[in-house]
Specification:
By secondary structure, the chain is an all-alpha fold. It has a single domain, classed as MetI-like fold, CATH 1.10.3720.10. It contains eleven helices and two strands; from the N terminus they run αββαααααααααα. A two-stranded antiparallel ribbon has the order 1-2. Helix 1 packs across helix 11. It is globular, with a radius of gyration of 23 Å.
C-alpha cells in the first residue's frame, strides 16, 4: 500500500484526467442531444420508424433511419456471434489442447490482430472476403443480392474477426481464473479435452455472454470496416447477403454534405445518439457480466 504522503500528489494528477474523460463523454452526449432537437421537433420520432430515405436540397426530404438502425443490429449481431464463437474456440484450444509454444504463438497472433488498424481489416474485407462471398453464390439467395459481395453478412464477418481477440481475452481470463482444484478434480475423474472443457465452460458461461455483449457494443459503432464492406444501400436487412447501411456507415457517407439537405444533419445526429446509447448499454452490461463471471470462476459470489 502506498504511503499517504505519496498517494495525494498522485491523486492530484489522476483525478483531473478522470474528470476530463467524464466531461468529454457528457459533452459528446450533450452535443448529439442538442443536434437532435430539430429532427424531433419537426416530426417527432417518426423518422426512427421509417425506412424512406429521399434527400432533397430544395425542401425538407424524407430521412427515415429504420433501415440503417436495423442494419446496425444485424451486422453487430453477426459480428458478436462470430466473435463469441471464436473466443470459446480459442480459450478451449489454448488451455486444453495447445502445447506451451503453440499457446504463446496463438496469444502473440491475437495481440497482433488487436493492434491492426481497422482500415486494414476493411481493405481485406473489400478485396478478399467480399469476392469470396460473391463467388460462393450466397448472394443469389437474396432477391436483391449484392453483385459485389458487399453485404450485411460481409460486414458482420469482418467486424467479428476484428473484435475476436478482445472477446477471446475475456473468455480466456475467466477460463484461466477457475481454481486448479476443480481442474485436478476433473482430471482425477478421467475427464479429458472436450469433456473437461464442457464442464469448465459451464462454470464461465457468463463470460461468453459478456464477450458477446461487449463485442456487440463494439460492433455497433464500427465505421471504417463497415463502410467498406456493407455495400452502401438504404435497404432493410431482409436477407444478410444484400447490400445495406448501418448508422455509422450512413453517417460516414452522408454527414460531410448533410448541410446541403435541410433536416438531414439533425436526423443523423439523432441516429448517432441512439447508436451511442445502445452501445453504452450493451458495453456496461457486458462489463458487469464479465466481472461477475471471473468472480464466479474464482469461487466467489457472482
Amino acid at each position: 500500500m502506498m504511503p499517504q504522503a505519496r498517494l495525494e500528489p498522485l491523486l492530484l494528477v489522476l483525478a483531473p484526467a478522470a474528470a476530463a474523460l467524464l466531461v468529454a463523454a457528457a459533452a459528446i452526449i450533450l452535443v448529439l442531444a442538442k443536434g437532435s432537437v430539430d429532427a424531433l421537433a419537426q416530426g417527432g420520432a417518426g423518422f426512427l420508424a421509417s425506412s424512406e430515405w429521399s434527400p432533397s436540397e430544395e425542401e425538407r426530404g424524407s430521412y427515415g433511419v429504420l433501415a440503417p438502425l436495423a442494419g446496425t443490429l444485424v451486422v453487430a449481431g453477426i459480428a458478436s456471434a462470430i466473435a463469441a464463437y471464436l473466443a470459446v474456440a480459442v480459450a478451449v484450444y489454448l488451455y486444453e489442447y495447445a502445447p506451451r509454444r503453440a499457446r504463446e504463438a496463438v496469444e502473440l497472433s491475437l495481440y497482433s490482430m488487436a493492434a491492426l488498424p481497422t482500415i486494414v481489416f476493411g481493405m481485406w474485407g473489400l478485396s478478399t472476403a467480399a469476392p469470396i462471398i460473391r463467388q460462393s453464390g450466397l448472394t443469389l439467395l437474396c432477391a436483391r443480392g449484392s453483385p459485389t459481395g458487399q453485404s450485411f453478412f460481409t460486414a458482420g464477418l469482418v467486424v467479428g474477426l476484428m473484435i475476436a481477440p478482445y472477446a477471446a481475452a475475456i473468455v480466456s481470463e475467466a477460463y484461466r481464473a477457475v481454481p486448479f482444484t476443480y481442474v485436478e478434480a476433473l482430471h482425477s475423474l478421467g475427464a479429458r479435452g472436450f469433456e473437461r472443457a464442457r464442464v469448465l465452460l459451464g462454470m464461465v458461461k457468463g463470460s461468453v455472454l459478456a464477450a458477446a455483449l461487449l463485442s456487440f457494443g463494439r460492433a455497433v459503432g464500427e465505421t471504417t470496416v463497415v463502410a467498406l464492406t456493407v455495400g452502401s444501400a438504404v435497404n432493410m436487412p431482409l436477407c444478410p447477403f444484400e447490400p445495406g447501411h448501418t448508422v455509422s456507415s450512413l453517417i460516414a457517407s452522408q454527414f460531410g454534405n448533410a448541410y446541403l439537405y435541410p433536416g438531414m444533419e439533425s436526423v443523423l445526429l439523432t441516429a448517432a445518439l441512439v447508436m451511442v446509447l445502445g452501445s453504452s448499454a450493451s458495453t456496461t452490461l457486458g462489463l458487469k457480466l464479465a466481472r461477475a463471471a471471473v468472480r464466479k470462476a474464482q469461487g466467489g459470489e457472482a
